[in-house]
Amino acid sequence: xxxxxYQLVAPYRLIPDGTGGLITRPCLAVVVTGPxxxxxxxxxxxxxxxxxxxxxxxxxxxxxxxxxxxxxxLGPPTxxxxxxxxxxxxxxxxxxxxxxxxxTEVPIRRGCLLGRAGFFNLWQIGFREAIxxxxxxxxxxxxxxxxxFVQQG
Length: 153
What we know:
Mean pLDDT: 92
Strand order of the largest sheet: 4-5-10-6-9-8
Distance between the termini: 33 Å
Helix content: under 10%
Number of helices: 2
Low-confidence stretches: none
Radius of gyration: 15 Å
Oligomer: single chain
Strand content: over 45%
Number of strands: 13
Shape: globular
């Protein structure tokens, strides 16, 4: 059986649950950079999201014109969310990498979701729900094949 020795361990974070309480979820600190700025945000690691998704207000803060992106309809269980795809640079746990991310045209409750395309495809990820820990290692294939996926020194 294959074995992964993860490089990073991140405890789940307490976040608002939308009803006035708190809940633990796998989250990571992310820096997203656009043509004219960067934003630090806490992002939810979400295997149910296909894209990396940001609230559209972040697009303006990093110098993107939201309307200029490729239109996509994101389909969460609660309905369709219109979004625009843009190329950005992200930094997570000391690694910088290019990412084609979706920026929503309507506000979303969670400011950022780290989804399969743009995040999971670059990392080896493990969850231990019983002890609320997230495990990460850069995928060795991504380090070799994705231009711009580099560890910050």
